[in-house]
Amino acid sequence: MTYSGAKLALFLGRELLVILRDDKADIPYPGHWDLPGGGREGNETPADCALRETYEEVGLELQETDLIWTRQYSRPRGLVWFFVARQPVSLIKQIRFGSEGQCWKLMSPRDYCAHPLAVPHFAKRLQEYLDDDEA
Prior knowledge:
alpha+beta, 25% helix, NUDIX_hydrolase-like_dom_sf
């Protein structure tokens, strides 16, 4: 089965980089807090997809070796990959917000998982990572 997209839970220091989605009725989860990532383009790998989308959305150029945790899961439009990367808080100075979304901010991972406007399936994946990380 081919995959449809990839997301990245990007920690800058102890905080999670989140993006407030546009508030448009024609997109999934309008006005919700999202993570960098999106749909696959061409024959790119899941990691390449997550890294490209992160660069397009927040201007941070990460490497595949920065990805420390991954899972794939099934969604209505196909397989989706979920990655985690941990980077130094100093990268905040390099963020260049792209053209998608209303704004970005840092949020504690626990707050994201409990937030009523977190994209539910991303909050669930993040919680799985946090549970693994504590084990």
